[in-house]
Amino acid sequence: MALLHTHGILGLNARNLLYIKPFNPKKAVAFADDKLKTKMFLGSRGIPVAKVYARIENRRQIRDFDFSSLPSECVLKPNEGYGGEGILVLRGRRNGIFLENGKMPVTERELRNHMEDILDGKYSLSGHRDMAFFEQILVAHDCFARLRPAGLPDLRIIVFNLVPVMAMLRIPTAESGGKANVHLGGIGIGVDIAKGVTTHAVQYNRLIKALPHGGSPAGIPIPFWDEILLISSRIQHITNIGYIAVDITIDRDMGPTLLEVNARAGLMVQVANLAPLRSRLERVTGLKVSSPEKGVRLGQELFGEKRTQHSEEKSPPVLGTRETIAVSGDGGTVEIAARIDPDQQRSTFSSDLVTELLERGMLEATAEGNTYRVKFTLGGKKVQTAVESAAVQGPERAIIGRRDLSGFLIDPLRTDTPSTRIRYRPLAPSGTQTCESLRRTATRRARRWI
């Protein structure tokens, strides 16, 4: 810990007096502690959250609960739990009996007893009566495979004044019982705010050079990084919790997904980053930040590790709420006006547009029926994705959802309105122009339309 200077480090007393007390009123703290209320509130406002299968509020509901109504894989949680305590991860059944973490059988009687403990407040942060709920189990994204986690990893983002100031990747281990909590023996890995790349790692309050399997914790890129920062800043903007920690995981199917918010987060994040948190908080105190998008941009500019002059990495493109996409195919390029909507998960093309693009050979049907694979250019970036066919309200014929907005920043004040007329540009008849040059031409045209 000698690498950390005492100046600028945030201690518990300073955190409580300088940031929690003035910026997190009791009502906001109580809201953050209520996981179900928080998820329902944020989920209805476009923040991706896991599905809740059932909630248990009293002993009669425990007595009458039908466990066969649950899927084979789910998570039982206390609503106001803390530190990962009281959570049961149920993976599969054997002879109709749930298996904890896919191994140890848990009978219905044991589950009912555990639910009673939750209702009695055994795992509650305040010690008061609580409620239990069963939730969708999330599956770790493939990007975490090289870390060999013993459970579901997550990212903790500290946000203050709409600015993401520090971040940490938390890795569950066998010592932590498969939970991502660092104080239980999980591994905390600092993340460079600008690049979304891991830096230093800590376990049991000590810096470590290697992960348990021998791999290096440094230099691992986190996908969807800009989207994760933007979700975190948006959550603070929506909840008005002034000093907040947002815990997000990356699900294999859903992408970035909110786990919970915390109004009194621990301070191990500054050890994992070898950087003092208080200095960063002081640097953004009093700044006028008008939107989450600007908060993300500011955080990356202020707190990202300095890039070399020869770095090929570019700033993420900034999109307005309406843009033009260029859909590419063997026969040419189609330029289409699209609405940018991060509140919608998957991108959508109107039914007539899908028909037209199928005729041109620019879409490929999938096994899901109304879903199609497509390649298009947006803001100078190539996107390969699957879109749904559905009705699209408004003058645009396409909606780009948050799954395809990773790597972009969105400026809601940007009001450029592209033409709603579709333009088709066929390939040049001469054989002198290469496919690569055609792609570059399509990209330049799309930019001019934007």
Topology:
Layout: H1 12-23, H2 26-33, H3 35-43, E1 52-56, H4 59-64, E2 73-78, E3 88-94, E4 97-100, E5 104-106, H5 108-119, E6 132-136, E7 154-160, E8 163-171, E9 187-191, E10 198-203, E11 206-208, H6 225-239, E12 243-251, E13 255-262, H7 268-273, H8 277-284, H9 292-303, E14 318-319, E15 322-329, E16 332-340, E17 348-349, H10 351-359, E18 364-365, E19 371-378, E20 381-389, E21 398-400, E22 409-410, E23 423-426, H11 435-449
Parallel strand pairs: 14-22, 16-21, 17-20
Antiparallel strand pairs: 1-6, 2-3, 2-6, 3-4, 4-5, 7-8, 7-12, 8-9, 9-10, 10-11, 12-13, 15-16, 15-19, 16-23, 17-21, 18-19, 19-20
Helix pairs in contact: 6-9
Give the class-level CATH name of the largest domain. Alpha Beta
Give the mean pLDDT.
Answer: 86
CATH structural fold name of the largest domain: D-amino Acid Aminotransferase, Chain A, domain 1
Poorly predicted regions are 1-6, 307-313, 430-439, 441-450
**Helix content, binned percent:** 10-25%
Mind describing the biggest β-sheet?
7 strands, antiparallel
Shape: globular
